[in-house]
Amino acid sequence: MRAIFSLLGxxxxxxxxxxxxxxxxxxAVQTPQAAVSAQNMPQQVKQAVDAALQQPRAVxxxxx
Length: 64
Known about the structure:
Blueprint: H1 2-25, H2 32-54
């Protein structure tokens, strides 16, 4: 009886993991707004990196 419940529990866990994996591996549906923001992402990253590089770096004093 204990073995039957163990196998049934294991089967349920494997079924749950299979459904979860199937859901995660399914292609995502993009909205038009998400597609536009995805196209602008490299440009936004480049602008952020350029802005960070323009800021002067703080140099600590060498004198103790």
